[in-house]
Amino acid sequence: MGEATTRFFDELDRRGYEPRLEKAAGTVRFDFREDAHTDHWLVVVDHGTLKVSRVDHEADTVISTSPELFDEIAVGREHVIAALLRGDLTVTGNALLVLQIERILPGTPHARGPRRDFVKEAC
Amino acid sequence: MGENLVRILDGNTFVVSEKTGDIEATPIEPAGLFSIDTRFLSKWVLTVNGERLTPLSYDDLQYYEARFFLVPGMATHYVDAKLSIIRERAVGSSFRERLTILNHDEVPVDLEVRMDAGSDFADLFEVKDEILNKKGEIYTEVESDRLRLGYRRGNFCRETTIAATGGPRYDRNGFAYSIRLEPNEQWQVDVDVHTAAVGPGGRDLRIGLQAHGHERLALQHDLEEWIAAAPKVNCECEPLARTYKRSLVDLAALRFSPVSLAGQTLPAAGLPWFMTMFGRDSILTCLQTLPFTPSLSRTTLRILAALQGARFDDFREEDPGRILHEMRYGESAAFEEQPHSPYYGSVDATPLFVVLLDEYERWSGDSALVMELERETRAALKWIDDYADLVGNGYIWYERRNTDTGLENQCWKDSWDSISYSDGRLPGFPRATCEVQGYAYDAKVRAARLAREFWGDPAFADRLEREAAELKERFNRDWWVADGEFYALGLDPEGGQMDVLSSNIGHLLWSGIVTEERAAKLAEHLVGPRLFSGWGVRTLAEGEVRYNPIGYHNGTIWPFDNSFIAWGLRRYGYAEEAATIAQGIIDASVYFDGRLPEAFGGYRRELTKFPVEYPTACSPQAWSTGAPMLLIRTMLGIEPHEGHLAVEPVLPVGMGRIEVLDIPGRWGRVDAFARGRLEIDRLAA
């Protein structure tokens, strides 16, 4: 289990509430498989309220990846939808929940964002 | 796209073949069986006794099925066939083909029937190139009861499985039968071609991707329901009746259900290369079709909201609040060789999203959706103010951050040379185009209504109205080309105008950003000889340096563009000018059997006598399909007004009588009637 992944879920648990998940309700389990061992994180979303635990419960949606890949996803260096299309990440269950959860993942670490001329002038 | 290609589809699975039903893909004829932006069959060739077959006729019965009647041998002087071969095919959850061979001879015949099958697994973005160096590995597995063609690159795996009844012999290149047919005997087998996007563990990633029932009967039933639910259009003008019917069926074909919303559909952009979600195309199509097929708008708003940008990503050009441009499912998106996972490089989809939500509520009365999408709508408005104004002067600008695979022009005229100065020079970046400022104005005005009536936030409403008024004033100061008396196509950061006369000014009328006293001049330009060809309004006016009657965005006529221009003219009271444009486009539809193409040539009507189709135009294309519907709305002057539907028709004489029955909306269902009384020769001359 990588540090970034742990940090990501810890932070999610501390946040407790995420307005971008106001419309989401359900349980998402993350399975990180390495050899014979699988780590689990369970996120319970109830209209924005978040609870994170490390139990292997049945869930509406199960997202499976390698621990390495999720470590990259957790810091924005890899992208969930591209990974899903590539087959490096798999999803079973409610696909809409995946899209909703995906939106709260970080963007690319060194993204420039829109270049604004007037900001530059002001500097 | 060759004319001899037959296309059938369901959702984003489609087949493009020759008139024999054969598929032989080349860069020039990009035929094949396609699904999720991947080619699953690039070769599918039927032979009898080693000979190719000749088509007698084909029917594309419905958008999802086709039938080919064939005889052996190549066409020579006449056909004296003792054999008939019928291929019937349909696409749904898989591609199915039924082969029937009839022996008309008085003696038995021995036949070797063979289907050659193969796949290059090209990404949709590769099909017009020679496919030489795929990064993964293509494999073939021959089993006793099926043939498996596959492509693997890491965990990315796409597989075509071919299985036929009648006990064929499978080999690496297809399957074959040796049969004997007695006189008048008939032989029949069914072939099933299954496409799969196999994830680890063998699971298909397309959970609920297909839209409707898949099975032929379910598809038939679904189409009948779709047509029954839409208003009936009865009219004396046969071309209008035909183009409406054609559009309704094509719109059914273009429905697309994204992975995450099983069973709910939105319009994909167009067949064959754009069977996917496009922010701009889907929204504009919904706006065109609201009076006829309102269910599309609800899904479109929801899915675009679900995928709204949430963070910064320079490769995908994602920003918080931005509405997506294009989503793709193929290899190039998966390996991030293309940014479509999804790609956000458009500046108009975001304001248009707000416009559609308001327009949808005005028709449907679906206030619950307005409440549901409040956060996303506010985020879209914030994007307009915070992230799109790259120059800091109150306009929406664009400059791509993905300089390898991003789009240079992020407005609807997105080809590289579409935005220019009057001397033909291309401007630097960032760029701003006029119609997008109109959309932003309209978005603010409409959002103010939503904030006041639904969100209980009058302060926000006041602010939006104030900003809209300021934008209108600023726009009319900075963009008006005084000597030409029109609005500039674009602006550069120094305030320099791209002072060419373009169709974009018609969109400004639609958005309401034009001051009353300037509208008359715009109307005059739009039906004047430089812009209006007799069939429609050109993207760029005759006489401009870059004008070319078959220049993609520099002179061709786009039916979708015209439908919004007509709507805009009507909004400012120029009903006759609107009817003139409507008449021209509907006249043009006759030459395309009612199916308006993406674009046709800007040649003067007197010169060519018929509209010249743009060479590589995509057809059917959603917003061309939606154009006749918006033109009907415009001519009939139907508008939601305080909970009921107002009707104020202004029709050309040639339209005769029109009835539109059962228009759905917050009023239940109502009818609209009209009769053509307008002589438009004066204007069209």
Overview of this protein structure:
The complex is a heterodimer of chains A (123) and B (685). Chain A is α+β, with helices and mostly antiparallel strands and 123 residues long. Chain A contains 5 helices and 5 strands; from the N terminus they run αββββααβαα. Chain A has one domain (3-122): Nonspecific Lipid-transfer Protein, Chain A (2-Layer Sandwich), CATH 3.30.1050. In chain A, 34% of the residues lie in helices and 28% in strands. The longest helix of chain A has 13 residues, at 3-15. In chain B, strands 7-8-9-10-17-14-13-12 form an 8-stranded antiparallel sheet, with no helix packed on it. Chain B has 17 helices and 29 strands. In chain B, strand 1 and strand 2 form a beta hairpin. By secondary structure, chain B is α+β, with helices and mostly antiparallel strands. The longest helix of chain B is centred in the C-terminal third of the chain and has 21 residues, at 458-478. In chain B, helix 9 (434-453) runs parallel beside helix 11 (504-511), helix 13 runs antiparallel to helix 14 and helix 13 (559-571) runs parallel beside helix 16 (622-636). Chain B folds into 2 domains: 6-198, Beta-galactosidase, Chain A, domain 5 (Distorted Sandwich); 216-684, Glycosyltransferase (Alpha/alpha barrel), CATH 1.50.10.10. Chain B is 30% helix and 23% strand. Chain A: It comes from Micromonospora echinofusca. Chain A: Residues 12-105 form the SCP2 domain.
Search tags:
heterodimer, A: 123 residues, alpha+beta, Nonspecific Lipid-transfer Protein, Chain A, five-stranded mixed β-sheet, 5 strands, 34% helix, B: 685 residues, Beta-galactosidase, Chain A, domain 5, Glycosyltransferase, 2 domains, eight-stranded antiparallel β-sheet, 17 helices, 29 strands
In short:
Chain A has a single domain, classed as 2-Layer Sandwich (Nonspecific Lipid-transfer Protein, Chain A), CATH 3.30.1050. Helix content of chain A is 34%, strand content 28%. Chain A has 5 helices and 5 strands.
